[in-house]
Amino acid sequence: MSLSVRPQRRVLVTKINRSQSFAGVNSSADRPFRNLSPFTPTVSRKTGSRVSRMFSMSHKSPPPKVPQPNRLDEVYEALKKGLTAYLEVHQLELEKLSTQIRESKRNSRLGFLYDLDKQVKSIERFLRRLEFHASKIDELYEAYCIQRRLRDGAHNMVKAYSTGSPGSREARESLAEASKGYKEYTENMCLLENELESQLGEFHVRMKGLAGFARLCAGDQYEIFMKYGRQRWKLRGRIEVNSKQVWDSEEMVFLPLVTEFLSIKVTELKSLANHVVVGNVSCETKDLFAALPQVVAVDINDLGTLKLSLEVTWNPFDKDDQPSAASSVNKASTVNKRFSTYNQSPPDTPSLREQAFYVSVHQAGLLRRHGQW
């Protein structure tokens, strides 16, 4: 997948300053719109790196002062598409497990069927929770649309009373009442917008690495700084031999925002006081509401010679205790392995030799019990 970059004004004067490979561009302005392509470079990370979580209360965005209805419409459409895809993926997984249960009831053991049934019930609970979450988002958006229509009506009334002659007392009172209503509906829209933003879930962003073809050389060091509203993520990496990369951070969790865009700044660290800004871009995030993990690529410089690869997994909830589509697929593959193992030695009727052996053992036990042997 490609991560779209917001179009920005471009600075005409750039500085070329690089001794290795070919030149890197030092520009402090955001880059223009580009078409991007996915890739997967080889990356190794330092041991002991953990997931960083950036969704504490201090990073929670306060209610906006001015609502953004057009932007909210775009985010809502993308969110509904992502939730629909999530439901479809888990519905397919549920049908696959149900088919396995029907096909394996005859020649499988009880423990295997119990494991399958447990997974089916877990996915069914997750689907019910997902449907309730989608209905809650629909209710919030419907309430937002009602407040928007009331706000538009109050705005038209204020405009009409302002253009007329405000000489009479009734006209002044009506203008004050319309202005009060307009302010109240605006505050309601801001609160609903903030509440809807809190229902967007999480973006789990994993660093895949930089790819630059001849742009990357062994020994180069880079710093990547990501800004998403009040949330920050800074990580440093080094290019080693055999195109391997070592980064001091592995993963970050961002809370999705309605009006903010993801800003990415890549800096090459040459010496103590000589840092070269390779690129500074601002990316759209509403396309990241997807059911399955996706690898996105971002062109860092104008020529596209340096790309940043990120693996983004969207979780529609703010907790880690519910199964994701990837985990369900992994469980299904494990069940298939167990299914094939059980089919290799199914429980069947003992042979005649085994029956004779069991009878002799039973008779010997009876003789020992009565003291005859």
TrEMBL record:
Write down what this protein is called. Answer: RIPR1 regulator
**What Pfam families does the database record attribute to this sequence?**
PL48
CC terms in the record's Gene Ontology section: cytoplasm
Organism the protein comes from: Catharus fuscescens (Veery)
Indicate the transmembrane segments per the record.
Answer: none
Which PANTHER family does the protein's record reference? PROTEIN KINASE PKN/PRK1, EFFECTOR, RHO FAMILY-INTERACTING CELL POLARIZATION REGULATOR 1
Q: Which InterPro entries match?
A: FAM65_N, HR1_rpt_sf, RIPOR3
What sequence ranges are listed for the domain FAM65 N-terminal? Answer: 16-362
Family annotation (SUPFAM superfamilies): HR1 repeat
Family note: Belongs to the RIPOR family.
